[in-house]
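Sample intake — ABC transporter ATP-binding protein
Collected from: Saccharopolyspora taberi
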Amino acid sequence: MSSLEIRELAAGYRRSTVVSEVTTTVGSGGWLGVIGPNGSGKSTLLKAVAGLVRHRGRVLVDGRELAGLRRRERARLIGYAPQIPQLPVGMTVTDYVLLGRTPHLGPLGREGRSDLDLVAGLLERLDLGGLADRTLATLSGGERQRTVLARALAQRAGVLLLDEPTTGLDIGHAQALLDLVDELRRELGTTVVMTLHDLTLAAQYAERLVLLDSGQVAAEGSPAEVLTPDALSERYAARVTVLRTPDGSPVIAPFRG
């Protein structure tokens, strides 16, 4: 189980700052949802935590500073599933997911039976078992998205960063994917940080939400505290009402004016 601390994080590209002074914490085994309108800095924040874009501020896992760690060491602590991955041409689903085991391999870099079994199990749980020998180029968008998640899960890192993991998935596969993430989180104590456009799904799976606007934290708290009609109207320029499921989870419903 791993905790994550983000302290006064600022990040961007070239001379442009996209995220400014973001501070938040996620306890061991917690699930944080990062939401906000297009261009608010959600993906940039995750890339900064993963060490993929220039940034200042501090990122700590279990109190350990990540700045200066080698990529292999960082990959043992943080797994990252990008929204738009670069997929190798000609590689099979199994071989791609096995790349997630790389940080844990020995000097010879050879996968053992336990690595193969772990990957096979993940493919089955993500409804990819029948595609194990298919090349990545032959997959649909939703199949590729689940394959990218499988690779990140194969890392068995203490912190898992998911950037729009349900992109391209129908509602059934989206729910199944998030159910699996939640199941593994509870089994392994993984700490999850997820960006999501679907506010209803974010509310129903994340324990806490951070609402970004123009690269800064506009609100933070439980889904019920953050997802209010006034806040959503102001930040998203949208007409919405907030309904409730039988268990009290928020449902964000747009309506015509």
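Post-analysis note: The two ends are 46 Å apart (CA to CA).
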